[in-house]
Amino acid sequence: xxxxxxxxxxxxxxxxEFGNASDAYRHAYNAQNMKPETVNRKAKELLDNGKITAxxxxxxxxxxxxxxxxxxxxxxxxxxxxxxxARDVMEWGPNGVILKNSDDLTDDQAAGxxxxxxxxxxxxxxxxxKRHDKVKALELLGRHLGMFTxxxxxxxxxxxxxxxxx
Length: 166
What we know:
The protein is of the alpha+beta class. The protein has two domains: about 5-65; about 75-140, no CATH class. Helices cover about 50% and strands about 20% of the residues.
């Protein structure tokens, strides 16, 4: 790893602990009296620094490893949501909706469920089954595969480059 300055290291340690770049900058660089816009800009500059991001990855690695967070596992979970079907967990027809027994669901089928609730009243009751957002999971998988790109426009206005995404 490339050598960081003591202030950069302090920034990384504080960011790792609290997760807020501006607060980490204020703490590491003793910038309590600096304008918030300046603090935010300087904190972003640090986060754009390859040495800083490498150090942060190093700091986060043990927790991610312990929790078994890998890109493969994330893609697998997204795929479970993206490619799951409502028919996997319920049946519907002229006689109403019937939820399948949770013990009968595979892990892949259960992964798509965000919430199940039941309410009862003196007149009857209702079941609610909410699935995770299938379109969002498909979008994230598509982005992972490079299928989707955001359009970026650049414009020069008074000698200043302005960039935005649509």
